[in-house]
Amino acid sequence: MLDVPGRSLLRAVLAAAWTRNPRLGVGLITLSAVTTILTAFTGPSPVALTLGPRTSLLPPWYLPVSLSGLSEWVVVPLLWLGLSVGAVGLWIAWRAVGEGWRPNNRKLFALGAGLSTLTALVPPLTSADVLMYAAYGRLQVLGLNPYDITPATIFREQFDPVLIWTERPWQDTPSVYGPVASASQWLAAWLGGPNMHDVVFWLQMLALIPFLVIGALVVKMAHADHEVQTRAVLFTVLNPIMIWSVIAGAHNEAFTLVFAVVGLWFLRKHPFLAGLGIGLAGTIKVSLVFYGIAMAWGYRRDWRKLLGLVLGAAIPLALAYGLWVPRALFAAGRNTGYISAGSWAPPFFTALSWVMPEFVARSIIGWLGWGGMIAIAWMLSRVLPWTAVPGADPSVDPTREPLTIAVRTAAILTVSWLITSPYTLSWYDLTAWVPLALLASTRLDALLMWRGAWLSVAYVTGRAVQFSDGMKATAWVVRDVLCSGAQILVIVMVVLWWWRDGHELPSLSVWRHRWHAARHATAPATD
User: Fold this and answer.
1) Mean pLDDT score of the chain
2) What is the number of other CB atoms lying within 10 angstroms of the CB of residue 39?
3) Residue 173 — φ and ψ, nearest 5°?
């Protein structure tokens, strides 16, 4: 709890005009993206990936190697500063929307699309995941199974012009992605040929294009609601945290999520098509199961629509995991048990490891994560307000409108999972930003900004490259002390929110009341 002087200072900051200045907010967001673009454009460095020889005119573009290679003490602090500035800019713009700012959303979207596109035309930064995507695609082009064979198995025995450029620590890990994700990796490897630089370009396009499509679909789902449209732009294509996390890292989060967002688009009128969308999303990453649960919950009062949703989802899932690549169904299981630096878990894992075997401590942390997710989901379900998603029939109660139910439930489930999972990364947050964009402004928006900013800063030094001892020590403080503390604070703030709003606990009486209310609401009217 803040002391009185602390509260006074916070009130003074929030009352300052600059904290609601939209020009300042958009300017800081732009400056953040430009910082990322220019840092990558300087070429290979401790934060920018080395992609091997350039034999074509395709992006990613960067300065000649002779002019690149900036010091870690230049690029790392520069990105830390740029990401911090961007997060502040997003917060200012978000506050401006709440104060009545209504910009030209077409121009705002164009700015976000332009910054995202420029970010995708320079080398990826700080995460070597895209190199592993390329490696899994290359294995398939060579006729090998990425679920059985690792990139290191090949390049340790023979030279390969693509696999040789992969980086630790995942070179000995088989693919954990679904069949459609593997197909996209094969396509990029086939188009790029035996050149890592060109393969990465196509993978960057497979991150950029879905990212822009997601932004456009969410804006369309906002219909004519100007405020929600602005939120949709700010939380997707103009979100500096997501431009950094998804586009600058060329992660496949957008490629996964775009199918789920298409499913939401069809939810009001076409349950079967909505099911196809979420089913396709599940063939890329199983974490999209939360969207599937949310959609099913939205249809829970209409068994015909629920059946259509389930049948639509079952088709791609059955084809992908039943007939195409059955082994992929178990691939994601390899991710269980991991604990990521910067999450809430490392301090507790370290403490437990002092008094018990590591595998026991890891198991306890995993169960705490799942238990925490259930608890936080309940708390958020009590405090997150019910506001109809634009386009809903005004005569229908928002608590009974399928898309509103699905969007709100998706926000609750994804946020609960993100903030309580022992293994969590900033690019995962795209799954939460989309439903939050379509809901009313709450403190959850700011909490996600805080969380994403810290995780983004923490992973500026995320590559497994040789940093100096001084940089390692500084990065450890940022990632394992400050960022972990910031993630714990997010959980504490959600708990306090719930506590101050009545701290309702689940009980039989609560469920009985809700059951009777639902029955009364569906009972036929009488004269």
Assistant:
1) 92
2) 25
3) -105, 125
Helix/strand/coil for 372: helix
**How does residue 520 score in pLDDT terms, banded at 50, 70 and 90?**
low
Q: Do residues 326 and 343 make contact, with C-beta atoms less than 8 angstroms apart? A: no
Return d(Cα 519, Cα 335) in angstroms, integer. Answer: 42
Dihedral, CA of residue 23, residue 27, residue 29 and residue 35, to nearest 10: 180
In this structure, is residue 9 part of a structural domain?
Answer: no
- Residue 7 inside a domain? The answer is no
Vertex 76, ends 73 and 78: CA angle to 5°? 95
Rg (CA), the chain: 23
For residue 117, which amino acid is it? T
Residue 2 lies in a domain: no
Considering the domain boundaries, does residue 61 fall inside one? yes
**pLDDT per residue over 386-414, tens digit each?**
999 999 999 999 999 999 999 999 999 99
User: What are 379's two structure tokens?
Assistant: 């708390």
Output the pTM of the full model.
0.94
Contact by Cβ (8 Å): 203, 133 = yes
Domain count, the chain: 1
The stretch 51-71 carries a mean pLDDT of 87
Cβ atoms 37, 119 nearer than 8 A: yes
Domain of 195 in residue numbering reads as 15-517
